[in-house]
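Re: folding output
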Amino acid sequence: MVKANLDHVTIVLKGPKFPGNVGSTARCAMNMGISKMIVVGNRDLDDDEVRQMATHVAKEIVNGIRHVDTLDEALAGFSWVVGTTSRQGSGRGPVVSPRRMAEILVGLSQENEIALLFGPEDKGLTNDDLRFCQTLVTIPTVGFKSLNLSHAVMVVCYELLIARMENDGGYAPKLAGTKELEGMYAQLKETLLAIGFLLPDNPDYWMMHLRRLFARTTLLAREVKILRGICRQIAWYGDHKERKNS
């Protein structure tokens, strides 16, 4: 029976405002069996307050927090990114519940590094942040939608823990990493602009739809290479035809 591999799961906090929330998140992670955290930006958080809220239970997680300056750097080593959002709309794409997210990640977590991405307490993740994500999660609430950061982390991680204990999600092979995918998307955007498929005044609108399309296909590394090879061939053909006609 395949169970979620929590060793392949990392909590990523983008721009947290309050050190107490970082400490509480570390404690929640420890409770739910997740041992890795990355903090993006805001290196000025009071370390004593972080440790006070984490308590001695999560000391090892706090000691192991990796601090980076950009989201690109934080997510470069992951093959699947789960973004959390309380806001919905056509610009954000379809969302799933934490329970459905956990079912999806059971198989994926066997061979792939997975990031659980949470935004700052006041604004959450932006649309630009969400472009990295293959899965978007919204936690159902009654009335007020906003949750404390550590509470949101606890809910998402709890569902993963339950999935580890109970669910069989099948097996997924190793997927292309975020760095590989971002390289592919940049090359694809350049190619589609060159052939006139994307409008130069707003190319990112259609690129977001293409990102969602490819996110549903769980691209392997070799498949990304094939797509990039197609882009290179299109570029070569365009240059060759232009030289031939000149």
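--- second protein (sequence, then structure) ---
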Amino acid sequence: MPAFLFLRRLLGDSLSLYWDLVKIMVPVMVAVKVAVDLGVIEALTRAFGPLMGLVGLPQEMGLVWATAALVNIYGGAAALIGVLPETPLTVAQATVLLSMILAAHSLPVEQRVCQKAGAGVVFTTVLRLAAALAYGAILNAIYSGLDILQQPVSIAWLPSTAPDAGWREWTVNSLTTLATIFVIIVALLAVLRLMEASGLTAFLTRALAPVLRAMGIGPQATPLAMVGVLLGLSYGGGLIIREARTGALPPREIFLAVCFMAICHSMIEDTLFIMALGGHWSGVLVGRLVFSLLVMAVLARIVHALPDAVFERWLYRSPAPSGPLVKAEG
């Protein structure tokens, strides 16, 4: 592809994605600023205190996680940017929080994708939330026990905003942040395009395929699952839905593939963005993948041991042809 055409498409895709993100992030950023000024944050975060205590995070971070879970990663990022001035984090804490966001975000939309693929929406939702909390607790125990990554997190591109900053300073810093995020989006999409063009994405898919097959995800479902793991649930889920409707894939393989994509997807784009927010690679990339594989190894044994009647009643229903696929974020 000529360089000019590549750059033109990259810029067009970046602007399209960025506009979608701005429509999500700006309202969240304004809402958080208003909540901070009115003292609402303190009242809202009391409900999250016990959960955040389990993973070693300030209770204010519960609002960030809840926003990401109900909106998407970028909504969570906007909430994090809003509360960071009042509630600074260590690198370890930021990694714990951001890893939890990666495991459980965009639930209303992404769980619809899981449901359309046939996986039980209640089970996969509980799986994602439980996996996020369990992994957060494990990461916190490791980082605290080894006394590593305890330095304050520093997001170099994020303007420094005082907790009591007025609206004028907040607006200027917010616009600077949004402009920087656009640059990050362009860079992320460029990396994705280059990885696909160079064959690196295909190589990673082949490299992880034997591990998935060992978990009971067969050769037909493995490439589809890896698309979701590397590029996003909407991509892999869409492929799984299409194949599931043909009846070509065994139901248990579909279910396990969807579960794997649910707790570990978009390992490239989302992970790079999360690292730009201060997440350490040890937790948001390596540890997350290892944890997900271990969870799936246990889940695969349980699923394959279940009687058909139990599996079909509680965990899986064959998808039927329906309307167009809901687009998921991440």
